[in-house]
Design goal:
Length: 250
């Protein structure tokens, strides 16, 4: 592919989406084609633009159909100044969520340990203590200590050669399932951003459709390009939408 302003060429996006769809249909835990850093940057930017267009389109349609209040966004806006909101929502939370849902798509004992700890913190915060990821309340250190314990235990177990080999074979054999589960978990766990009632659960697939699409892209770029690429896209997306909330209109 010629690197000469590809982002303005419709054929480039067709090729980009073809690569993404092929990966989604048959995900593998290694790059199918080796690309230069320049190609990776262009592809990442291109997928970011596609994701933004998709997210805005879905959000706009939901305004006319069903649009529950995003309790997480409201809570953060009330607790943080604009600058702190950008730091927490645009940097800290994307790092946390990428570690939780994408880091371990490439198997490594350290990666799996960090993912296990982060996921423990996520579930304790959302499902057990009914708190917020960024809220430092009286349960915060309980959540942190539990996550650290899980990190240490997981790393000790995964460092054993026999267990490491079993997990490596599992990743190679069942990567398709691991990829799909990471996408669905990332998307559907965002239901905690809304009030947990029957109506929102029924609307779950549509309410979390932008997150599901984002997860498919993030999983693809994480495996094909490296962890830093979906992380930067996640940060850029959050920062963009946070900045939009500062504008003087809905």
């Amino acid at each position: 592919m010629t690197i000469s302003y590809p982002l303005i060429k419709p054929k480039y996006y067709k090729s980009l989406l073809t690569d993404l769809v092929n990966f989604i249909k048959s995900p593998i835990d290694k790059p199918s084609v080796e690309k230069s850093t320049t190609h990776k940057i262009y592809d990442t930017i291109g997928l970011f633009l596609v994701k933004v267009v998709f997210s805005i389109t879905v959000a706009s349609l939901l305004q006319f159909i069903y649009e529950p209040e995003n309790l997480t966004s409201t809570s953060m806006a009330e607790r943080f100044s604009p600058l702190l909101l950008l730091v927490v929502g645009g940097i800290v939370l994307p790092v946390f969520e990428e570690i939780t849902f994408r880091l371990s798509l490439k198997f490594n004992p350290i990666y799996l340990s960090l993912t296990s700890g982060a996921f423990t913190y996520y579930l304790l915060t959302k499902a057990v203590f009914k708190s917020r990821l960024s809220l430092i309340d009286d349960t915060f250190w309980d959540r942190i200590i539990a996550a650290i314990i899980v990190v240490l235990i997981t790393y000790i177990l995964c460092s054993r050669k026999s267990i490491r080999l079993i997990l490596q074979r599992c990743w190679e054999k069942h990567f398709r399932l691991i990829y799909y589960l990471s996408c669905i978990c990332f998307a559907w766990l965002h239901i905690f951003n809304f009030e947990l009632n029957l109506i929102n659960f029924l609307w779950l697939p549509l309410l979390t459709l932008p997150q599901l699409f984002s997860a498919t892209i993030a999983g693809y770029t994480r495996v094909a390009f490296g962890f830093q690429y979906p992380l930067l896209v996640h940060m850029s997306t959050n920062i963009l939408f946070i900045c939009l909330t500062f504008l003087p209109f809905d």
